[in-house]
User: Which sequence fits this backbone?
């Protein structure tokens, strides 16, 4: 990054193009003072987040920021959205814009029919950039490339990307169809959770995956970078924006997300979703001891300490309902929402005791 900053300054470069991860490294070099010649930054090959765009605006306020989108099968870029220096920065996910010249974009449902404005669908791409197909892979070819129902003789590429089209024609990227999660019968878009996380102060990047944690089963795990707040603060922030079942059970802070040689996310290099190490402290009092026994039975763990976290141990919203039912059978008033807000054994015991006092 330092070499690049020096090159831009020496050659008075006007336009540069980055993938998001390398743009972040470039900005971390405090490029604003040295790179006054820049007029345009083009960013593609990954999601341009609101947080990253904000850093560009703060450090290089004179720059036009272009968010370009497109898969390799359409000769890379097929759409663009531009943030002018005087434009307000949108909140949430940044649009991927409109089609470039000689390109046609369609938002279609599972039956290759157009969906209304504002409704999520799979992006299909037509026009001059669409490649001929996959050499020697006839099954993948048939799945991904279809005859266009809109233009005679043209083929469309099924991108596998979920988008929705605003009434002004601008497209918003929602995530991958193959990254969609169905967890305990509920469909979850990881990108929606990631967008909420990156709006939390201190969080630079976020990635949400499903991890199969036996014996409790699959659960959401969030990998986060930056000056990351404690897990409790992240959980509380998400509960203000998302339903309980979309809040990750585990938050794993990293110095940076692992990248491949070409600067894209390397999911295979992510660390294992292991539980944080906590010093065991035995439950104190009747309520904590009762909770520890029920948690142990529900979660399939040998022992539960007073600082252990229900969700980190593998708990989820359905088990939370079972837990509150078991507590009511034992004569205690319990609340599911309180468990999400106070997920440690001691914290939930204290709030349960207070509810009993109020009653």
Assistant:
């Amino acid at each position: 990054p330092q070499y690049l900053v020096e090159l831009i300054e020496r050659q008075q470069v006007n336009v540069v193009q980055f993938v998001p991860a390398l743009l972040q490294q470039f900005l971390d070099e405090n490029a604003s003072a040295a790179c006054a010649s820049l007029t345009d930054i083009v960013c593609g090959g990954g999601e341009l987040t609101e947080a990253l765009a904000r850093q560009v605006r703060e450090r290089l306020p004179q720059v036009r920021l272009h968010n370009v989108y497109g898969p390799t099968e359409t000769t890379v870029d097929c759409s663009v959205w531009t943030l002018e220096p005087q434009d307000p920065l949108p909140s949430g996910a940044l649009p991927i814009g409109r089609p470039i010249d000689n390109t046609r974009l369609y938002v279609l449902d599972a039956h290759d029919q157009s969906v209304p404005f504002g409704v999520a669908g799979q992006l299909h791409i037509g026009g001059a950039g669409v490649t001929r197909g996959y050499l020697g892979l006839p099954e993948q070819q048939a799945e991904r490339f279809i005859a266009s129902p809109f233009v005679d003789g043209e083929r469309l590429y099924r991108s596998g990307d979920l988008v929705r089209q605003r009434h002004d024609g601008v497209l918003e990227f929602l995530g991958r169809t193959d990254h969609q999660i169905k967890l305990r019968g509920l469909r979850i878009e990881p990108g929606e959770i990631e967008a909420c996380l990156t709006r939390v102060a201190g969080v630079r990047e976020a990635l949400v995956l499903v991890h199969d944690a036996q014996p409790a089963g699959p659960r959401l795990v969030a990998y986060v970078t930056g000056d990351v707040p404690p897990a409790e603060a992240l959980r509380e922030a998400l509960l203000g924006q998302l339903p309980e079942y979309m809040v990750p059970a585990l938050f794993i802070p990293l110095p940076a997300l692992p990248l491949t040689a070409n600067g894209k996310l390397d999911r295979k290099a992510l660390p294992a979703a292991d539980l944080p190490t906590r010093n065991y402290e035995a439950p104190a009092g009747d309520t904590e001891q009762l909770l520890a026994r029920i948690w142990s039975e529900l979660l399939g763990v040998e022992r539960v300490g007073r600082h252990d976290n229900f969700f980190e141990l593998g708990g989820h919203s359905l088990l939370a309902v079972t837990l509150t039912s078991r507590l009511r059978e034992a004569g205690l008033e319990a609340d599911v929402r309180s468990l999400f807000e106070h997920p440690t054994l001691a914290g939930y015991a204290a709030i349960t005791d207070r509810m009993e006092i109020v009653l």
Notes: Residues 103-176 form a domain with the Luciferase; domain 3 fold (CATH 2.30.38.10). The radius of gyration is 24 Å. The longest helix spans residues 285-299.
